[in-house]
Amino acid sequence: MKDEESGNRLGSYLRARRELVSPAQAGLPSGGNRRVPGLRREEVALLAGISPDYYLRLERGRDKNPSPQVLASLARVLELDDIERTYLLGLTAARPRAPHRKRPEHVPARVHELLAHLQIPAFVEGRAFDVLASNPMAVALSPRLRPGHNRLRSLLLDPEEQAFHQDWTKATADFIAALRTTIGDDTDNPRFVELVGELALSSQRFRTLWARHDVRSLDGGTTTVHHPVVGELRLHRDKLPVDDVILVVYYPAKNSDSDEKLQLLAALSHTEPTEPTDTAHDNPADIPHPKTP
After folding, report:
1. Which of 99, 152, 193, 275 is 20 to 30 A from residue 169's alpha carbon, by CA?
2. Can you tell me the distance from the alpha carbon of 205 to that of 104, in angstroms, rounded to the nearest whole number?
3. Distances in whole angstroms, Cα of residue 18 to Cα of each of 21, 34, 44, 177, 229
4. What is the pLDDT of residues 104-128, one digit of tens each?
């Protein structure tokens, strides 16, 4: 975390990624006494066609503005995908910094109306995975989807949420990589600083994955969860941007076993369409975060 705190995000990312590429992946012999995981600095430099001294300057933050050609070569050697390459480009000094968001995250009134009419689990989340509003079916699916909870915090620290996900290991990796992507160069955002600081202190899983510097998007997809009442549910997930927040909906395939179970859950919960709660604050960091035992 020291490189990030000192502003050397490019060097920190390069070092983390080269440690994840094995010599065999890069077409190099893996024998000998290797004291570092993954590739050595000089090996990255050789494969990228740059001098070892210049690559050392990049990792140590002495040069923060490499050319696009150098970045493309490094992306190739480090086997970065499109999202990771975009993230790498965003770490250079040449990219203008996005203006800091000062206004609070707010759920538009029309979205509250939409939530009240939807008969599937739906909720609104902020950039840091804070639940800002939700409908009754979302809460019936998981009590951790009530406004005021943080989805990543629940996933890492709440035993019930951990049991809820069929593949908790993948879910944590996806969420943490998505958080790093969302943060981008907005590293001084108070909500991000608070959340990363809290989870770094309280979760070994978070510390391990955060140090990898993985980045990815967390948009549409399909997930399987274990509900304590109706059992296993296989649900599609879509995330739809609305102004500065994200509307998230979960829904099963029509006439599937999960569809029947979700209808049963709706009947068992005896929910009536009510106005969801908006927890927008002057500062998103003021949202209360329930503590787990």
Report:
1. 193
2. 29
3. 5, 14, 7, 17, 45
4. 789 999 999 999 999 999 999 999 9
